[in-house]
TrEMBL record:
Enzyme Commission code: 2.6.1.-
The UniProt record lists the keyword Transferase: yes
InterPro entries in UniProt: Aminotransferase_I/II_large, AspAT/PAT-like, NHTrfase_class1_PyrdxlP-BS, PyrdxlP-dep_Trfase, PyrdxlP-dep_Trfase_major, PyrdxlP-dep_Trfase_small
Keyword line: Aminotransferase, Pyridoxal phosphate, Transferase
Entry keyword annotation includes Transferase: yes
Cofactor: pyridoxal 5'-phosphate
Domain Aminotransferase class I/classII large, residue spans: 30-390
Transmembrane residue ranges: none
A Pfam family assignment: Aminotran_1_2
One MF term in the entry's GO annotations: pyridoxal phosphate binding
Name listed for the protein in its UniProt record: Aminotransferase
Length: 398
């Protein structure tokens, strides 16, 4: 069967093949520890589940407004006012089936063939492919480890051309866990003010998962003159352990929101009605569970950094957010274990999976082959065992 040109430009997800291998090993009865997970290991807080049950019992099970129920839009507006200090009207909010869907709708609404989108690397795996699906061209800007993999103003200036239509920023970052300080954002804002055609996507999906008193901001907050062309992407997945519920949202210019809503109206229609009511409870209800989860992640982060610090030749930017670390393991490239030679992050990931039954995501999937991504959304016991295995497996390479 002939496939479309569009789909042939899209890469299959690297994490899927890791998961498939992990599954195959588990089916053989092996205990695989997965550092590959991209979601909290906690259950959705009880009161949120209860709100969904009540929504079903009240019969809130029919189509809703395509752009989301007014109650959820209002809750989002209130949270954004409280957390960001920014005001939005309901016409500037679109609720979708996860932050990923929000990004997809936005790209479809504003990008054309020939447009360029600047994506600082390392980047979240889905950005380049979603940009390609919109017919535009991803322009990957490699960010050095010396800046903790963050984009610097000079690099941004050099990457912008007449065709640049969009810049994607993700802070705290998947895969590095690092975040941009308000000063760093102001530096980038100075460059963006000179280029009116560039819209900014601020993927804030991990903004509530911050550690060590890190001060968070986004572009619209630090530079009010850029608010009109900044699009905020957020959602309940990571903050409230609600990855399966599929509720994300997009805030920004009303015309673009309307256009993105039109795309949504001809694809998914409204996000799940019950999940929307659960999201209202998440945003409006007690935030105690969020605090408990954040504290658990903070303790695990400390442990993970301590264990990484003990691995010879491994360096790692200190992450202040999300639940990932992105260590540079390239000191092990060129080494061997028996007949197996490790030439890059894909080889190392295969080796760890096959020899240590440890799933990690190769840095190549995020545009940085020197690193691997480890998630610490695992229990302390699993983290301990995982690091014991990692230490031993790396120690066997010579
Ligand atoms: C950087 C980043 N943005 C967006 C998302 C999308 O999350 P969701 O679609 O579950 O809201 C993810 C999920 O892994 C992510 O890591």
């Amino acid at each position: 069967m002939k496939l479309s040109q569009r789909v042939s430009q899209v890469q299959p997800s690297a994490t899927l093949s890791i998961n498939a291998k992990a599954k195959a090993l588990r089916a053989q009865g092996k205990k695989v520890i997965s550092f590959g997970v991209g979601e909290p290991d906690f259950d959705t807080p009880h009161h949120i589940g209860q709100a969904a049950i009540q929504a079903v019992q009240r019969g809130q099970t029919r189509y809703t407004a395509v752009q989301g129920i007014p109650e959820l839009k209002e809750a989002i507006i209130d949270v954004v006012r409280a957390d960001y200090g920014l005001d939005y009207s309901p016409e500037e909010v679109l609720v979708s089936c996860g932050g990923k869907h929000s990004l997809y709708n936005l790209f479809q609404a504003v990008l054309d063939p020939g447009d360029q989108v600047i994506i600082p690397a390392p980047y979240w795996v889905s950005y380049p492919d979603m940009v390609r699906l919109a017919g535009a061209e991803p322009v990957i800007v490699d960010c050095p480890m010396s800046t903790s993999f963050k984009l610097e103003p000079q690099a941004l200036r050099e990457a912008i051309t007449e065709r640049t239509r969009m810049l994607i920023l993700n802070s705290p970052s998947n895969p590095t866990g690092v975040h941009y300080t308000p000063e760093e954002l102001r530096g980038l804002a100075q460059v963006l003010l000179d280029h009116e055609q560039v819209v900014i996507v601020s993927d804030d999906i991990y903004y509530r998962l911050l550690y060590k008193g890190a001060q968070w901001a986004n572009m619209a907050m630090v530079e009010p003159r850029l608010k009109d062309r900044t699009f905020i992407v957020n959602g309940v997945s990571k903050t409230y352990a609600m990855t399966g519920w599929r509720i994300g949202y997009l805030l920004g210019d009303a015309d673009v929101i309307k256009a993105a809503g039109k795309i949504q109206s001809q694809s998914t229609s409204n996000p799940c009605s019950v999940a929307q009511w659960a999201a209202v409870a998440a945003l409006r209800g007690s935030q105690e569970d969020v605090q408990t989860m954040r504290q658990a992640f903070a303790r695990r982060r400390e442990y993970v950094m301590e264990r990484l610090g003990r691995l010879p030749g491994v360096t790692c930017p200190d992450p202040n957010g999300a639940f990932y670390v992105f260590p540079n393991v390239s000191a092990y490239y060129g080494k061997k274990a028996g007949e197996r030679s490790i030439q890059g992050s894909l080889d190392l990931s295969d080796y760890l999976m096959e020899e240590a039954h440890l799933a990690v995501v190769p840095g190549a999937a995020f545009g940085e082959d020197r690193c691997i991504r480890l998630s610490f959304a695992l229990s302390m016991e699993e983290l301990e065992e995982g690091f014991d295995r990692l230490e031993k497996a790396l120690g066997r390479l010579s």
